[in-house]
Design a protein that fits this description.
The structure holds two protein chains of two kinds. By secondary structure, chain A is α+β, with helices and mostly antiparallel strands. Chain A contains 14 helices and ten strands. A five-stranded mixed sheet of chain A has the order 1-2-8-5-3, covered by helices on one side. Chain B has helices spanning about 15-20, 45-55; strands at about 1-5, 25, 35, 60-65. Classes of the chains: A alpha+beta, B alpha+beta. Chain A: It comes from Dactylosporangium siamense.
Chain lengths: ~425, ~70
């Protein structure tokens, strides 16, 4: 665990983190014993935050589902990232809804919901996403192998989807890429993040001003127009923050999930074969991969008043890290939770989180991963790793975990189905 | 079965509509849940229960009536 070995100042054990070869799909092996014998223990996290580590399904669900006792104020990744805001106790900045609680937070969620989590709207986007996935596979067919499934497929797909939704041109992508990378990297200082975010915020501020004057049909325009119709309109900065959140999350998080998910399937060839033979399993396969891989670094909460977790007293002001991946492998959820099964149909996994802060882009992520899983195995039946598995490197010290690159090769890419088929 | 919703907590995640579209819908202007069927047909009981369990904001309450 190189990511945490540098931080051994305290006597506490370090927060176990996935990302290395011995646990490429997580969770780290320590969690099995923790769930069995020490479901709530003190740990030291990479940023120097000491926290209660919660590893069982029922307890993780309790913490995430009780926002009045367990606040988001500290920032969900402040145990892993020093960068954004610069610590757990800095004031919440204008529009920084991930660190808000209660009604204040609800106002933002309900403003974004019509664009990214209304199921009718998501269903309308299906042909767009299918077209983007098919065009990217057509482009791969014309390139030299091997290709990196992350940089040459997953990221172009997710970038094209978010660029289309927000109506931001391809030429501006480097700005988004730099901001996304700086935000998710554990090594970034607050100064690094500010330097990467400032040009993005200036760009989006100009976008908000321009589109307020002449709104289009894109997500940013629609959020501006709906805002101006409400009793409590959003400020320009609040609109910028919502647009930035969608852009940054849409840019990297979903792409990492796609490349990590396909890699997991390549390492479970029988499951990949099931998907190839029956693409209608793509929906359950998506849920299963999110369960299996989701939120490797865990989520941070702050206790608001003295209470207990699984009988362990915790005090107001204490930090809690919920180990989502561990919870999702708990025998209390599935007796065979360490098995990847693309046909699983039941159970409330916590891979997108739980509670009011559950992933705001989850329906978009579902749509993108489901489309990829219904399409990729059918169009590239011979898809395989171009290097031995033990040469794949995994991100460490990041809030978005997964492989750094996934070099792949194939014999043939078969044509797309006719649209509407 | 009787379905009750506590829409004041709803974050508009769409999870219920994804799982049980016969029972739940969403408002267009803020994504908040709309209950389509307070007494769903038996064939939708399983999906309604699933929606109640998976709703992130714990908005859905199911009363089983024998």
């Amino acid at each position: 665990m190189t990511a945490v070995s540098e931080h051994q100042a305290g006597a506490l054990p370090p927060l176990p983190l996935p990302g290395e070869q011995k646990c490429p799909f997580g969770p780290p092996p320590e969690y099995e014993d923790l769930r069995a014998g020490q479901p709530v223990i003190r740990v030291s996290c990479p940023t120097g935050v000491d926290a209660w580590l919660v590893s069982r399904y029922a307890d993780v669900r309790q913490v995430l589902g009780d926002p009045e006792l367990f606040s988001n104020r500290a920032g969900v990744a402040a145990h892993i990232l020093l960068g954004f805001g610069g610590g757990t106790d800095v004031p919440v900045s204008e529009g920084e809804f991930p660190r808000m609680d209660g009604a204040e937070h609800l106002r933002f969620r309900r403003h974004m919901a019509p664009e990214v989590s209304n199921i009718k709207r998501i269903n309308q986007l299906r042909p767009l996403v299918q077209g983007i996935v098919d065009r990217q596979l057509d482009a791969l067919a014309a390139t030299t192998q091997p290709v990196d499934l992350y940089a040459d497929f997953a990221r172009p797909v997710t970038t094209a989807v978010i660029a289309e939704l927000l109506d931001v041109p391809e030429a501006d992508q480097p700005l988004f890429k730099r901001a996304a990378e700086s935000l998710s990297a554990g090594g970034s200082s607050a100064t690094d993040v500010a330097a990467a975010l400032q040009p993005l915020f200036e760009y989006l501020y100009m976008t908000v001003v321009t589109r307020r004057a002449a709104p289009g049909e894109d997500v940013i325009s629609r959020m501006i127009v709906r805002s101006d119709q409400t009793d409590q309109p959003f400020t320009d900065m609040e609109l910028v923050t919502m647009a930035a959140a969608l852009l940054i999350a849409g840019y990297d998080t979903t792409a990492s999930l796609i490349s990590h998910g396909v890699l997991a399937l390549l390492e479970h060839p029988q499951e990949l074969e099931r998907l190839r033979e029956d693409p209608s399993l793509a929906g359950t396969a998506t849920e299963e991969l999110v369960r299996y891989l989701g939120v490797g670094g865990g989520l941070l909460r702050e206790v608001t008043q003295d209470t207990e977790i699984a009988g362990q007293p915790v005090k107001a002001g204490d930090y809690v890290v919920v180990a989502v991946q561990s919870a999702n492998r708990d025998g209390a959820l599935y007796a065979d939770g360490d098995r990847l099964d693309v046909g699983r149909t039941s159970g409330a996994h916590l891979g997108f989180g739980h509670g009011p802060h559950q992933c705001v882009g989850q329906q978009l992520a579902r749509l993108e991963l489901t489309t990829v899983l219904a399409t990729l195995p059918r169009r590239i039946p011979s898809l395989r790793l171009a290097v031995p598995f033990d040469e794949i490197r995994f991100k460490v010290n990041s809030s978005v975990l997964g492989p750094v690159a996934v070099p792949v090769a194939w014999d043939e890419i078969v044509p797309a189905l006719e649209s509407g088929a | 079965m009787r379905v009750e919703i506590h829409a004041d907590r709803c974050i508009g995640s769409g999870v219920c509509v994804l799982l049980a579209p016969e029972v739940f819908d969403q408002r267009d202007d803020d994504g908040v849940v709309v209950l389509l069927d307070e007494h769903p047909d038996a064939r939708h009981h399983e999906s309604a229960h699933d929606a109640a369990t998976r709703c992130p904001a714990l908005v859905i309450e199911i009363h089983d009536e024998g």
